[in-house]
Amino acid sequence: MLWILCLALCSLLTPTRADPGALLRLGMDVLNREVQNAMDESHILEKMAAEAGQNHPGMKPIKGITDLKVKDVLVPVITMNFMPGVGIFQCVSTGMTITGKSFMGGNMEIIVVLNITATNWLLQDEETGLPMFKSEGCEVILVSVKTNLPSNMLPKMVNKFLDSTLHKVLPGLMCPAIDAVLVYVNKKWASLNAPMPVGQMGTVQYVLTSVPTTTPSYIQVDFSPVVQQQKGNTIQLADAGGAEFPEDYAEGSSQLLLSAAFLTAELALLQKSFNVKVKDTMIGELPPQTTVTLAGFIPKVAEAYPKPKPLVTQIRINKPPKVTMKTGKSLLHLHGTLEMFAARRRDKPPVSLFVLETHFNLKIQYSVHEDRLQMTTSLDRLLSMSRKSSSIGPFKEKKLTGFITDFLQEAYIPVINDVLQVGFPLPDLL
Ligand SMILES: *[C@@H]1O[C@H](CO)[C@@H](O)[C@H](O)[C@H]1NC(C)=O
């Protein structure tokens, strides 16, 4: 869920060349939020406090101090940095209060602030082939120590306490906090592999191409997505050139790049749903869809149908839909036939007036909703129209351009947008 937010914020779908597949750049924004989630969900703080309150073998009693207790563990603040080629350097800053009774009978309090640091290697799990973070070299660094002990006994007492106790005990106490975060993040990698449904039409699976790589400002994840029809047929992604991220993005932000080839494969799942038969006579602002209106463009229609008859329009998309992208503009190309019929009385089938071979473009607008990529389209251009057959004799197709353009915009595009509402799943990662 988390990275989706980011995706929306960064308007990541800037169209550029990236074929085939999908690329994800995980920035610190995603990782920081993810770690925050991990902390909330894994109850690290509570665990640290519970662990701290227990007796530990290394926790030697200090001469003159009794009733030693750890309390008030501070909410850890986690900071991370990318280590190119390695993974992430993680630092957990936290603190706690250690209480006890001094030999003079007074209450003793030591407030320690500390950093726990570790290197999280980004590796490949040998069994599953999935990426995984593994922490190494967990260290505890004391940032500050404050106590209410009389100052004359402070250095000796405290140093002894720190040496004998904190340095030995704290790593065992605190380092699991680092691991708890990683367990949570690693689970996310595991859920990547699952095929995700596109309505009833098929599935999309984000298969990793290779182990993600770490750079100074992001982790790059390459996908070779698999698009499958419900029947199990895999739709091949066309291969066309390399990937290119837009240059202008906020530092630390995450980006997702989806190729035109990938979107084309996803839209192939919906091709059949783009075949539409429109029977309504009144559509939006359009003039009535009748032979009378049509006769205004092709006079021959009036000769064949002196009395007005409702029109029925059938659009069949007969080539897989294709997405093209240029900076700032993404288009959906549709090739198919548009057949217009004159309806007859109820018991008789409509009569075909003509069939036009058509090619038109829709402009695509992208948005992200929940964990899905949403598209809405509007008519860009009717590119070509040629007569394949006609029962009313030859006519100039050009005369119909305005009529058909309006029809596509008002009657057909809303149906397409309805079909597109199914949305395409985005990688379930972070
Ligand atoms: C402890 O961690 C904080 C936050 O990363 C950092 O600013 C500080 O310099 C660290 N202190 C020490 C002593 O390492």
TrEMBL record:
Signal peptide range: 1-18
SUPFAM superfamilies for this protein: Bactericidal permeability-increasing protein, BPI
Keyword Signal: yes
Span of domain Lipid-binding serum glycoprotein C-terminal: 251-430
GO terms, molecular function: lipid binding
Alphabetical list of SMART domains matching this protein: BPI2 (SM00329)
Keywords for the protein's UniProt record, in alphabetical order: Signal
InterPro entries, alphabetized: Bactericidal_perm-incr_a/b_dom, BPI_fold-BPI/LBP, Lipid-bd_serum_glycop_C, Lipid-bd_serum_glycop_N
Family to which this protein belongs: Belongs to the BPI/LBP/Plunc superfamily. BPI/LBP family.
Descriptive protein name: BPI fold containing family B member 6
Gene name, Swiss-Prot/TrEMBL: BPIFB6
